[in-house]
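Example 4.3 (complexes with small molecules)
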Amino acid sequence: MNASTRLLILVTAALSVAAQQTPFAAPNQNGSPQWTVFHHPIKRVAVIGAGPAGLQAAAKLVEHNFSVRLFDRAPSPGGNWFYTDETPVREPYPDRPIDQGADVPGELPATRYYKEQEEGVSLEDRWKEHWQPRPVWDNLHTNSPKVITELPDVPYSADKPWVLSNHDIQRHVRAYASFHNLNANDYPTSSSAQPVTSYSTRVEKLEKLNDTQTWRLTLRKLERLPETGQIKAQWWTEEFDAIVAATGPYASPHVPNIAGIVDWSKVKDAGQYSVYHSQSYRRPERFQNKTILIVGASVSASEIARDIDPYAHRIIASIRPHDNLHPFQLRSLKRFPDTTEFVPEIAHFEPLAAHDRGIKDGVIRLINGTELHGIDEVIFATGYIRSNVFSMPDSGNTSTSDGEPENLHWTGHNISDPTLAYTNVRPWTIGKYQSYAFAKIWEGTAHLPTQKQMQEDYDNGKYRFRGLFGTKQSEGESLFRQYVAWLNNESLENGGRFVETWPIQNREVFVYYSNLEWVEGYSTLGNFTEFETLPASEWPSGKRDAAAWDAIVYDDQAW
Ligand SMILES: Cc1cc2nc3c(=O)[nH]c(=O)nc-3n(C[C@H](O)[C@H](O)[C@H](O)COP(=O)(O)OP(=O)(O)OC[C@H]3O[C@@H](n4cnc5c(N)ncnc54)[C@H](O)[C@@H]3O)c2cc1C
Ligand SMILES: NC(=O)c1ccc[n+]([C@@H]2O[C@H](COP(=O)([O-])OP(=O)(O)OC[C@H]3O[C@@H](n4cnc5c(N)ncnc54)[C@H](OP(=O)(O)O)[C@@H]3O)[C@@H](O)[C@H]2O)c1
Ligand SMILES: *[C@@H]1O[C@H](CO)[C@@H](O)[C@H](O)[C@H]1NC(C)=O
Ligand SMILES: *[C@@H]1O[C@H](CO)[C@@H](O)[C@H](O)[C@H]1NC(C)=O
Ligand SMILES: *[C@@H]1O[C@H](CO)[C@@H](O)[C@H](O)[C@H]1NC(C)=O
Ligand SMILES: *[C@@H]1O[C@H](CO)[C@@H](O)[C@H](O)[C@H]1NC(C)=O
Ligand SMILES: *[C@@H]1O[C@H](CO)[C@@H](O)[C@H](O)[C@H]1NC(C)=O
Ligand SMILES: *[C@@H]1O[C@H](CO)[C@@H](O)[C@H](O)[C@H]1NC(C)=O
Ligand SMILES: *[C@@H]1O[C@H](CO)[C@@H](O)[C@H](O)[C@H]1NC(C)=O
Ligand SMILES: *[C@@H]1O[C@H](CO)[C@@H](O)[C@H](O)[C@H]1NC(C)=O
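Answer. The structure with 2-acetamido-2-deoxy-beta-D-glucopyranose bound is encoded below.
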């Protein structure tokens, strides 16, 4: 096809778009649906979560003229990157997802005031339980280069290093929120408009109403009242046509169920727990001259070990053997301080004589029979589990064993009810495409396949998580570029602007970084060109369509 033929196709497409403005298409003539049709036009959308994923979804939906509300339980935007010195409420022993403790008054709206130690709960704990301070420490640096850890519209300055601190990322995400008028102190754009954002607001419950086919959110907002030293709680409900759940992958810390762990978890030394999850780690200074056992061999384990190394007396790491390590984990094994003593997995914690004198006299038995003595503190750097952070009555079991929501189309939409969508891609890189897809699908300029087709695709495992840079044909970059091709094809068919794919120079930087920092040979620039030879079965439509891809190439000239 020559350039002028392509141009002709685009012009024809543009004209047919103008002619075809009905947002919600009816079934075709023989009555069978061609794509998913919504019960009614989608106007009001709630976004739950103001981290890198939710902020982008909210900004894009606002741009597309939806009536948007953005809720986050935290007092400010940033998600995982809203660092504070406050530590999260303590993780449960034995292991289970943190109980969200929704306690909603019978009649709404409702207001309540809490005093210090009301029902035996301190104001501090009540506040922290509501918003859950983040599992991030002061000196944390990214394990992803800035080129894949950057939101649109607010580029880092060129002199920033490739590896950024937690504080740099926090400022960056806040800058994105401010740029889009989504920060905590931003005012509505007009005096009549309802504000988009509501911070310190936790979504307690999500219900689908039968008669209107709308979603009802039950919300709880906490406010600290410095004048009276009280906390004010308000509950109310709001209704929406569609929901974006952007609540993040790390809702709940995980601790292993090792024999004796519950007994040891009760121990305090000078008011501070001796056994705790890495989510509460903040600063290294108090580890002066201590003997620390770190459990785990992944990123939290190696990075906390490095942080405390200048202070600690001894660092012991309990790790499990592995054949198939992720590049992050290989990096971690290289990054433990040289002085780390590696030991096998823990078999059990022997019973303790007392619970108020620390664990230094306790005995930890390893699976090879060896005993460890004289440990001051145990840090479980044993990762996180995803948990459903708001309750959905009558929804049954909605997640897999690792807590991922089930039965989602690759766009993130719930196949049985695509007015509910989850952010399920790497937000930094593919988030902007997924956000655009949310807006297009709900405004009618992109179509979801029929439910039957979506279910078939899901059952065939056709679609996987998008946005990691595994560079095999079937993952990473090629899936990324399919997203772009699909969006542009939908715009070609149904209207809307084209989007560009990820810049080639970013790929080059990523290849340098991953070879230097992760694993030599992990990726080559060659890995990224395999998209063109991707089997047709991997395309969303089940066939390769040269016109859709060519259209991207000619975007600049034609539109
Ligand atoms: C210790 C640690 C280090 C990490 N380091 C890196 C790194 O170096 N590079 C990298 O790319 N990624 C890193 N990550 C992954 C991190 O999760 C992502 O970078 C990113 O923050 C994910 O964005 P998100 O918007 O999907 O989720 P989050 O940032 O987790 O945001 C989710 C938001 O949803 C809100 N929320 C949840 N439930 C409710 C509710 N019921 N009501 C209202 N609001 C709710 C939360 O308050 C939160 O603000 C790290 C994660 C951890 C835990
Ligand atoms: N930027 C940063 O510096 C930074 C810092 C922290 C976290 N993160 C990110 O946050 C996410 C979570 O990382 P994470 O390190 O907290 O968790 P993680 O990657 O899930 O690692 C958990 C570790 O705990 C180990 N483990 C679990 N149970 C164990 C047991 N009983 N005994 C010994 N080991 C056990 C696991 O080993 P198995 O593999 O054998 O299960 C694994 O090594 C990742 O995406 C990571 O990239 C980034
Ligand atoms: C949103 O509304 C404005 C004002 O009516 C309009 O100019 C703009 O094109 C709309 N945006 C989209 C993406 O439809
Ligand atoms: C909604 O409809 C379903 C099926 O028609 C029914 O089982 C359920 O009880 C209804 N729920 C409410 C709250 O009316
Ligand atoms: C450090 O700890 C060791 C062993 O517990 C102890 O012998 C030593 O006196 C401590 N040193 C300091 C400076 O506290
Ligand atoms: C068990 O592991 C520890 C730590 O690696 C080691 O010192 C010890 O010799 C091992 N014991 C046996 C019986 O292999
Ligand atoms: C998807 O929607 C169905 C129907 O409303 C619901 O039962 C199910 O729990 C939802 N699943 C998820 C992961 O949201
Ligand atoms: C939900 O189903 C998954 C997979 O079948 C299972 O692993 C998990 O334990 C179940 N969760 C609950 C809470 O029943
Ligand atoms: C990238 O390409 C190289 C060279 O063809 C290959 O050895 C390597 O396995 C590929 N990487 C991945 C992650 O597929
Ligand atoms: C583009 O969209 C049309 C209409 O939905 C569809 O027939 C075609 O297969 C799509 N092409 C690709 C590559 O997705």
